[in-house]
Amino acid sequence: MTRSLEEPGQNSPVPQARVLLPPSRRSHIALGLTTAAAQGRFELQVCSSCGAVQYPPREACHRCLSVLLDWQFQDGGGELISETTLFHSHDEFFREHLPLRLGMVRLDSGPTAIVYLHGKVPPAPARVKVDARLDKAGRAVLVAFPGDDTKMADADPAGDSPLWEAGCGPHSRTVPPTGGTVGK
Fold this sequence. Notes:
The protein is of the alpha+beta class. The protein is 13% helix and 28% strand.
């Protein structure tokens, strides 16, 4: 009979390194958003049949149910219509990064998205610029910056340390492996 493996005890010589990552469960459709974020782009699905822009990503158009959806670049302009600050989280990763500001942004292209708010974003209502960044788990997250300034996080990382430490800064960007080839 086979014995099951036991977890190492406190006196075990095996070091117990524990790295906390943000929740990474996303649908396979959302990988388009992650791929674009890894390339430094903010893209959303646009229906080829009716032209509707949609977020969150889906398998069919929310307006006409067409499955002909293309990922297209978005400028990210929008209006912050509501915001809140999280002081508590049940997720262990987010507990270390509290408080976190979140907001609801009505994008100029149509959809409304829940986004992280950079510390310099003024209270709602305010114009913001939304960009897609990668979190520490390598998944796309949406971040709103003041006005049209998506470069603010590059220039002022200390201006928003909870967001920066959560991995939404551009310097934590990693590109997930793909099936492409590298060569001349």
